[in-house]
Amino acid sequence: MDTIKINKQITRIIAHRGLSGIERENTCAAFIAAANRSYYGIETDVHVTADGKYILIHDDDTKRVAGVDLPVEQSTFEELRGLTLPDKEGFKRGDLVLPTPEEYFSICKRYGKVAVFELKNRFLKEQIGELVQRIKELEMLENTVFISFFHANLVDLKEICPEAHAQYLSYREIDEKLIAACKDYDLGLDVRHDRLNEQTVAMLKQAGVEINCWTVDDPARAEELISLGVDYITTNILE
Known about the structure:
The protein is α/β, with parallel strands linked by helices. It has a single domain (12-47, 100-235), classed as TIM Barrel. Helix content is 33%, strand content 19%. The chain contains 9 helices and 9 strands. α1 (28-35) packs parallel to α4 and α5 crosses α6. The longest helix has 13 residues, at 125-137. The relative contact order is 0.16.
């Protein structure tokens, strides 16, 4: 199996949870599979564990990806890290575990990819500050885009680190209120792709708001969005 190639022109393509169409999502295997291809960036999701550490997983529990039901933010890092995940064919592999932020950022850095880093739930301001400091120490801040459905996370981020590149995740209809929520804090918009059409893309461009969209796996829809002039497309399998 391989990726589906599209004519991306100048649109930046983001591998959603790594190359999750081929490898188990949000694992180092998925990140490396994306890193070895032409993707501009690699997206992942970070949670805080019960003992104040950080681990990469999308869901609030581990059942879908691991077959064992642990609530992520009520479990310790050791409990979560001890899970062995099945690959896409259902075979358990010792290399498939929930990664740390450091492992993810190290892969992005080694392969020259932009890190698209989702703050998954509401974080404390000091936790955001700690993550920013770690990313700075890894010399990846300039190559990181922070994203979150929690606008307050991004407000805190901008207060801590005004130069941080960030996009507000949304599935809402695009209107002046949403555009203002982005412009007031110098945020791009990472929006569900079905909210985008000729009119809404024009609104965002006129306001100077950077446009990312998720999750686009249909080549025809991707090429339509590219023709409209979106800046980024987030995908599981297109390249």
